Amino acid sequence: MVKLKIHTKYEGAWSNADELLLCLDTGSWRAERPMVDEEKCNYCGLCILYCPTQCMTNMEHHFVPNLDFCKGCGICARECPREAISMVAEGNFRDEEEI
Amino acid sequence: MKRKYKGEVRTITGNAAAAYGAMLCRPDVVALYPITPQTEVVEQLSRFSADGLLDAEMVEVEGENTAMNIAAAATISGGRVFTASSSWGLAFMYDALLQTAGFRAPVVMVNVNREMPGILAVSTGQQDMIGTRDAGWIQIIAEDCQEILDLVIMAYRLAEDFDIQVPVMVNYDGFYLSYLSEGVNIPAREEVDVFLAPLKEQPERPKLVPGGPLGCGTHGIEKGFVELRYKHCAAMERAKKKFDEIDRLFGESFGRSYGGQIEEYRMEDAEIALVASGSAAGTVKTVIDSKRKQGLKIGLVKLRMFRPFPSERLSRVFRGKKAIGVIDRSVCFGWNCGPIYMELRALSPEIGLIPIMSFIDGLANMDISIVHIERMIDSVYAASQGKPYQRVTWVVLEE
Asked: Is A27 exposed, middle or buried (0-12, 13-18, 19+ CB in 10 A)?
């Protein structure tokens, strides 16, 4: 029998921003990718508060989006007080990734 | 619980049996809206609450849709709930039924079978149950008042089982059973507590609690949805054997068991068979007994579980038989036959290519009478002898 790939932990349709329950590949919807400038980022955490998918990941001295779930809405870039995040069209990354 | 209930044998109606069954299982929340022929269930539970026998939050709702949504919400908050409806009421809670099943909220409800809207029929018929067959609920069917009470208790054990977590609908014929008074052995509450106790030893299912924010039912698209559908279908498959096991354990605890997914009546050496469900099964057994005296080798398979469909056990029991007649108290639009017949026909590769006949009878309070059943048996016997047969018979229209 074929072994199925099941990601969801529970029987019911439970969800939260925990990685165990993030089963939907929302990253595939993204048209623009947030790029974080580590030099400019002062680790204030506003992007975490505003991110609707709760996908900003704490890297101890700065934050980066989890691209499996980031939909590319751009709210983090708009809200960042130090303009450390810029939105770059996904087309620019085609060469380096298999899409 | 303010008052103890010691158990007794009483003459009660089918509706009262359902209410006693629910009361004994100690639901935390009861949300009901009255509808003929289910109203007495609401009245009985309200009386139990007033008499101090039922320590549940009684929610007065403005309609069935709210009743089911409250039931689902209370269940995903970790509570045990009970609700009941029928026909138009079931139709009015249809979206909530789907929601409850999708949440995998182990709600237990009673559906008192009644004909469905279109034609205003305040009369029995299984069309309401059939109309919700793809709602993702487990659907089980009772034959008499005792079985109603027993099935409600078994339903909690099945729905809340950690391996299942699927809502269960207990069906029984409106009018024929809802208002029929019979002697019913009502167990003591302590006995029911002991029977349901194993549920407490299982892992706890996730629930909504203050301080632990969770979403429920939001995996709207793509893979998460597919996974949840897959899990739901897998749980339905597991429910078949689980129901057989619960039936057996119920027999050990209370001295009554019914055969699980199906009851096989005089099937061992039977050459032809009828399939029936609900209150009509009792009449069929009587006719089979008299036909047996005349030397006809006939048996009955009583369908106790409609969803999931007991495909494995049905395939096994019918293998080697010569002809089968299926009595449906509802119709299958678009196939011009009975729905249970249609589903049984899907097992033809397993059963073998024998005549399977559909008998549509008992719609809208028409009796599935002894005379009707005798005629059906004669037709099935003729078909088993290789004579040409009619695939579908609308029994009362051929009188």
From this structure: middle
Contacts of B215 in chain A (CB under 8 A): 14-16
Give me the domains of chain A, ranges plus CATH numbers. 26-93 (3.30.70.20)
How many Cβ pairs within 8 Å bridge chains A and B? 59
Task: For residue A12, give the nearest of B104, B213, B223 by CB distance.
Answer: B104
Per the CB < 8 A criterion, the answer to whether A46 and A80 are in contact is yes
B134 vs chain A: nearest CA distance in angstroms? 18
Q: For residue A57, with 0-12 CB atoms within 10 Å meaning exposed, 13-18 middle and 19 or more buried, which class applies? A: middle
Q: Which domains does chain B have, with CATH numbers?
A: 8-254 (3.40.50.970), 262-398 (3.40.50.920)
Give the CA radius of gyration of chain B.
Answer: 21
pTM: 0.89
Q: How far apart are CA A61 and CA A76, in angstroms?
A: 17
Render pLDDT for A10-54 as a digit per residue (tens, 0 to 9). 888 887 656 555 556 788 889 999 999 999 999 999 999 999 888
Instruction: Supply angle C-alpha B252, B258, B261, rounded to 5.
Output: 115
Q: Give the separation between CA A72 and CA A30, rounded to whole angstroms.
A: 5
What per-residue string of b and e applies to B276-287 under the rule 16 or more CB within 10 Å gives b? Answer: bbbbbbebbbeb
Cα distance between the two ends of chain B: 55
pLDDT, tens digit, 9 for 90 and up, residues B187-220 = 999 999 999 999 999 999 988 888 877 778 776 6
